[in-house]
Amino acid sequence: MVGQIKELSSCIDEVAPVVVNLDAINSTLRTSGVSSTEDCEEQISELESLLDSQVYTVENKTELDEFIPSAKEIYRFYDPTPLSLDLKANLESSWLKFDNTLLELQALLPTHYGDIDDKHKTLQKRLSKCHAKILCCLDNLGLFCAYEAVKVCLESAPGIIEECEIYRKSFLQCQYFLEEVLSILGKSLPHGMLFVAIQLY
Q1: Per-residue pLDDT tens for 110-153?
Q2: Which of 15, 134, 198, 199 would you call most buried, defined as having the most Cβ atoms within 10 angstroms of its Cβ?
């Protein structure tokens, strides 16, 4: 009877699962205050008993790779979400509207304000660049990123300290343009994405 029990025990040992993640085991032993090799062996023995397993030390990673397959990498590429033609048309219309407003205000500038005239032309270039960058962001990064980019432009817009009233009005047109673009893009965002954008804002 005793012989049969020993034989059964031997069979169980042979089929016991193997624990090969020694990094995690060693980390656990180090944090539990093991002070000697004997303590370490004792705790590993207790661990084997607790998990009904055998701890196995691999000599190198190659041996481990034979039994544990590495993760299979899968690459997926997605086409950008097609944009509505109406969206770009609305953005173009908005830019033309504010650009024409700037031209009208420029015609009202007094002739003796030469430096203001130069600054006004700089405003027009800035408006045109903003429009081009928004379209570039829209085409390459998508609707949500374009929406966020416009918000950043609004937040980082410099203050106005010029005394010339016409220039002040022109300066504000650039801000109104960005606000209108933000509204146009916001209406095109899916409802859930718009909620996230508002939360971030």
Answers
A1: 776 667 778 888 888 988 998 999 999 888 888 888 999 899 88
A2: 134
**More confident call, 192 vs 38:** 38
- Is the same domain home to 130 and 168? yes
Is the alpha carbon torsion for 26, 29, 33, 34 positive or negative?
negative
Both tokens of 28, joined, read 């656990």
* Domain span including residue 137: 85-200
Same domain, 109 and 194: yes
DSSP string, 127-163: HHHHHHHHHHHHHHH-HHHHHHHHHHHHHTPPP----
Residues 6+ apart with CB under 8 A from 175: 154, 157
- Say yes or no: 91 and 183 in one domain: yes
Averaged over 173-180, what is the pLDDT? 92
For the record, the structure tokens of 58 come out as 């691999």
